[in-house]
Structures are given as structure tokens and as C-alpha cells.
Amino acid sequence: MKIVSLYRSLLCAFVLIVPVLAQAHTALKESTPKDGVTINEIPEKIDLVFNADVRLIKLELMGVGHEMPTNFEPKSEAIATYQIATPDMHAGEFTVNWAVIGEDGHTVTNSFSFVVDPDSAAD
Amino acid sequence: MFMSPTNWDLASLICKLFVYFGAASLVGGSLFLWLYNDGSRKTSVTILRYMALGTFFGFQGSLFNFLIQVGMVVDNGLGGMFDFGMATIFLDTQLGDTTFFRLGGFVLSFTISCFYLYRIGALDKTPPSAFYYFLNSINIVAFLLIAFSFRFSGHISVLSFIAKLSIAIHFFAFAAWIGSLYPLYRLTYLENINIMQISMKKFGDNAIALVLLLIVAGILMLLELFHSISEVFTTPYGQALLVKLVLVFFIFGIAGINKLKLTPGLVNKRGVLSLRNSIRIEILVAILIVCVTSYFSTIVGPSEHQMG
Questions:
Q1: Residue B121 contacts by C-beta under 8 Å, 6 or more apart in sequence?
Q2: For the domain that residue B97 is a member of, what is the CATH number?
Q3: Integer Cα distance of B255 and B249 in angstroms
Q4: B1 within a domain of the structure (yes/no)
Q5: pLDDT tens-digit map of B231-282
Q6: Residue B43 located in a structural domain
Q7: Closest-CA distance of chain B to residue A106, Å
Q8: What predicted TM-score, i.e. pTM, was given to this entire model?
Q9: How many domains is chain B built from?
Q10: How close does chain A come to B147, measured CA to CA in Å?
């Protein structure tokens, strides 16, 4: 019975530990525009810099309620730096949703947001 | 950065559990039929069903893990899992290669297990041990396909040849030990205690080699995954590993008791009941170990892989 009690304790500990220890495979080292900034110039491109070579398999530039056009196309080679052209940008709030596959084959998805406001002082 | 696992992460973790179960049933079931079988048709049917069920789940786990990764990226609910365009992109990645080899391995093993279930049903007498040679040969190929899939993805896949070889050995030893537990548990329902004791003793003797393989291969992987001892205690990956090591020590203790005390004590029904209960607990701890392993190989990564 002692062993069964110990097993139950271990099971409870496991259930409690899982949410606390969860850590995402984050991959993005820096971006331009940065996450959370307000810029006063309409960007012509988005730069993504990862800490290692990755395959960028998805990049969506979302305005409020619609997707903005970009020149992004998924490629087979893995690199660390990506530059995606963003024609037809305008003022407003934007979110970039991206997904990469790392060298170890793990898929990482994340997003960042920025605001384009020509009337503001830049962050 | 710390965050709660998403539903996609948890689904992927469940798929990995299915893959581990599939591999364990494949290896453990084959070894049991070869080394520990009492020779009865009833036992053989039970084990073949176990292998067929396990490899069925392994196949589903491999397939759905692929679809889940597609769905996670498309981010459009369950329907996103079947996005043809994204699936095509993923097929050309490490995930595609991994899925291909795992599906192949599980299909092979499932098919041969079902074939043997049919053949045993058609026999009018207990088959000799040579009857299983072809089954075991196919299962060796199936397991090699599954083990090879770890070359393409996972935290070890970017490390040295020694680390990749170590994970294959570690994976085999884990599957051989954990996968044999259910067949051994079923063996405790035999009428003939003498045959039971012979098989249990044989497994206990072989398990020493499996434990050594697990430990040596595990240490070799740890040496490459962690750059310092402090990382084991300060990183989530290391902390999850510590949880696993505690469980591993616990299961080693149970196995030791089974080998040194309970197997020699198989002289009467009371001894059988004690061993049966102990194996039951060993199976539960093994499930926990598999859960923790799936968790830190799916949701958490080593510090080297935390980019940004």
C-alpha cells in the first residue's frame, strides 16, 4: 500500500509540474519592426533574425481583419535571416504570424505586433 | 520564456506516447515470443494482439503527429490539419522523413502481427519456437525503421554520431524492457508456476544487460545535451530530466525486488500474487517515465535549443 501511495504522490506531482515547466521552443532573436513598437514610417520590409538556421514555412502579415500582401514564399533551404517585402503597407495595427522548423525538426510558431502611426513620435 | 502548453502541444505529446507504446509493444512482444514464451497458443494469441494493438496506436500516433504539426502552423482549427499546401511543405522537411520511416515500421509490424494471428488460428497444434522466426525478422526491420527515424528530428538529431547511436540503443533497451512488462504480467496468470518462474528468471537475467545499455547510452546523451551540471538543475529541460531520473531509480528498485525476492518466491499462489502486483506497479511507473520523456522531448528543449 505504501508503494501505491507513493505512486499516487508521484502522479499528482507530475500533473502539477507539467504546466509550470512548460517552455516553448522560442526561435526569433530579433525583428524589425520590433514587437510592441509604434513606428511613424511605413515599412517596406520586415526583417527576421533567428539564432540558428531555420526554415521559415509560414509568414502572415495581418492588418485589422485582413491579410496584407508580402513576397514571402516558403523555401527548402534553412537560413537565419529573412527579409520579406511588404508592399501596400499603410497606417494601422499589424500582427506578424510566423512558423519555422528548426534544425532539430521541431516546429515553432509565434507572432509579434507593431503599430504604424505616421503622426506619432517613433519608439 | 515560460508558457502553458497549447492544445496542439498536448496533442503532439499524446501522439508521441502512442509512438512509444507502439515501439515498446513491437520489441517487447517479439522478445517475449522468442525468449519467455510458455509456448501455449493462448499466450501467443494474447501477445500478438498486444503487438497488433500497440503498432496500430503507433501508426496513428505517427500519422496524427504529422497532421497536428500542420494544424498548428495553419492555425485554423482542426480543419487546418488537412491543409494540402502546408502538408506538402512539411513532407519536404525532417518531419516528413520521420513520419515516413515510422509509418513504414508500424505498418510492417502491424501487418505481420495480424498475419500471425490468422496463422495461429488456422493451426491445430501449438507451434514450435521456429514458427516465430519470420515474425521476429520482420519486426527487427520494423524497429530499425522506427529507430532510424530519430536521426531526422528531435534534440539528439543535431548532435554527434555517438549521441545518435546512443539514442537508438537507449530506445531499444527501453522498448525491450518496458514492452515486455505487459506480457510478463499476463504470464502471471499461467497455471504452471514452474514455467512462470523459468521465464521470469530469464527475463531478470537479461534485464541486467538492458539496464546497463540504458544507463550507458543515457549518460552519453546527457554529456552532449548539457554543458554543465548546473543546467540540469536550473533549466526546465534539466528539471524534467531529474523527475525522470527519480522515476527511473524507483523502477530500478522495483525491478531489483522482482528479480531478487519475488521471482525466487514464485513457489505458491501468494508468491504469484505478490509478483503480479509488483509488475502492475512497475507498469504504472513505466507509463509515468514515458509521459515525462514525451513531455521533455516534445514541449521543452535543452538550453542550447532555446533561441531568443
A1: B45
A2: 1.20.1630
A3: 10
A4: no
A5: 888 888 888 889 999 999 999 999 999 999 999 999 999 999 999 999 999 9
A6: yes
A7: 7
A8: 0.87
A9: 1
A10: 16
